[in-house]
Structures are given as C-alpha cells and as structure tokens.
Amino acid sequence: MPFKSLIKFLIDPFAIFWLLLLIILGAWFFKKRRLLRWLVMISALWFLIISTPFVPTLVLNSLESRFTPIYIKEISNIEAEYHIIILGGGHGFDSRLPANSLLSRTALGRLNEGIRLHRQLPNSRLVLSGYSSSGRTTQAEMMRQTALLLGVKEKATILQNAPENTREEVEIYVENYGNTYPVILVTDAAHMPRAMRTFVHQGIEPLASPTNYRLRGSWKRKWIGLPSTGNIENLRMGIYEYVGMLWYDLKY
C-alpha cells in the first residue's frame, strides 16, 4: 500500500471504527473480558462521535466558513484580465455521454462556479487544471469540452494538463504566469483553506470563490441527529483537509 494511501486509511474515522471491531474480536477470542468491555464502550462512543452531527459539523464548518463566494460588486476593476483557476475534481469515460456528464459532481460544481464568474468578468480566462491517470483525456481537457458546450469561447480557456495534485497545479501556474494576472481560485469550500495556503506559499494571493458546500443553511447548525454515513463523510473530509495542511507545512 502506497504511503499516502496508508495514511489516508489510518486517519479515516470509519476505518478506525473497523480496526476497533477487529481488536474486539481478538479480545473475545483470547477471552480478555475486562479489555473486551472497555473496547466495546470505546467503539460505541467512537461510532456515536463520528456518525452523529455534532463533531462532523463542527470540524467541516470550521473549514467551509472561512471563505465565501465572490460577488462581482465586491470586485473594484471588472475589466481586468482575471485568471479564474479551477482545480481538477475527477472525471470518467463513456463514449455515449457528453463531456458534462463525464465530469464528477465535484468537478462540475467547480466549473459551474468558474463560469458564473467568467460571465461577469468580460476579460477573464478560465484556467482548467488536472491530469489523466489513464493517459486518456485529461481532467483539464474534459472541463474545457464542458465549458465549450456551455458557451465559453475556446480562446477564454487555458489548460494545465500535467498537475496531479493541488501543489503541482499551483507550481505549474506560477512557473507559467507568476504574478502577471489577478487570480480567482475556485475549489470546494472545504478544500479552499488548504488550496489558498498553497498559493500564498508560492507567492500568489488569489481571491477565493469556494463552491460545493456540504453544509448549507440550517445544516451548518445541526448539532443533534441520528447516525448517518453523511456525517461520517463530513468528518472524513474535514480530517483529510486538516492533515493535508499539516503535512504541507511540515514538508514545505
């Protein structure tokens, strides 16, 4: 198992729950009754923590609430040649389907936000980013095809076909353009703090316009509720982002 995959597994709250169950099975097999009782209580408590709203909402909202989407009235010079950088978010392949149906929900949400801004900034260009692990159509190319289907002019798009992750997306952009253009960054609300930190570290201070919020309206204040896989996913996402920021700070 690659190192990064191992780390993701070990910090996954649901994977930790399954590991606790395996340890419980071992304690039962070896007749460690006192240990077994403690492990059952710890496992039950852990399951409640990760699957009910309070902790997942607290963790994820601490990320999603740091930035809000841009409204054009907030931009002083709408005639500037903004580069709207849209980070990659995944796609698939199916010859029956148009490009917009092949983008993941994450990528489609990001592209949708980028196009919203592009429509209101007449001289802006969309910087579409992301590689292809299969060697076929890249994420950047798939987003461009979708953007063209939605009425964006090809000359208003810039492709970054090589980057595999956020750090590489930033480094390649800086290598090509430096601080030449004002930048607007579009990515998931939960991912935005880590992405902004990466850009600032490379000497770029973009405007943030997050999208794909998981917590909206009353869900931001939902502290009590029944266990659900959605809560586990919210906590997983929040943990990944905080660990990602810590890893980046330690490594770079």
Report on the structure:
The protein has 252 residues and is of the alpha/beta class. The chain has helices spanning 3-11, 13-29, 33-51, 54-64, 99-102, 105-120, 139-149, 166-177, 192-201, 229-251, and strands at 83-86, 125-129, 157-160, 183-186, 207-208. Strand 4, helix 9 and strand 5 form a beta-alpha-beta unit. The two termini are 24 Å apart.
Could you give a quick summary of the protein structure above?
The chain is of the alpha/beta class. The protein has helices spanning 3-11, 13-29, 33-51, 54-64, 99-102, 105-120, 139-149, 166-177, 192-201, 229-251; strands spanning 83-86, 125-129, 157-160, 183-186, 207-208.
Based on the model shown, name its key terms.
Rossmann fold; 2 domains; 52% helix; 10 helices; alpha/beta; five-stranded parallel sheet; 252 residues
**Count of DSSP H/I helices:** 10
Helix content: 40-55%
Number of strands: 5
Q: What order do the helices and strands follow?
A: HHHHEHHEHEHEHEH
Structural class of the helices, strands and pairings?
A: alpha/beta
Cα radius of gyration in angstroms:
21 Å
Proper CATH architecture of the largest domain: 3-Layer(aba) Sandwich
Our measurement of the CA-to-CA distance between the termini, rounded to an integer number of angstroms, reads 24 Å
Shape, principal axes of CA atoms: elongated
CATH class descriptor of the largest domain: Alpha Beta
Beta-strand percent range: 5-15%
| Average of per-residue pLDDT values | 93
Return the domain count.
Answer: 2
Spatial strand order of the main sheet: 3-2-1-4-5
- CATH level-4 homologous superfamily of the largest domain: HUPs
Q: What name does CATH use for the topology of the largest domain?
A: Rossmann fold
| Main β sheet profile | 5 strands, parallel
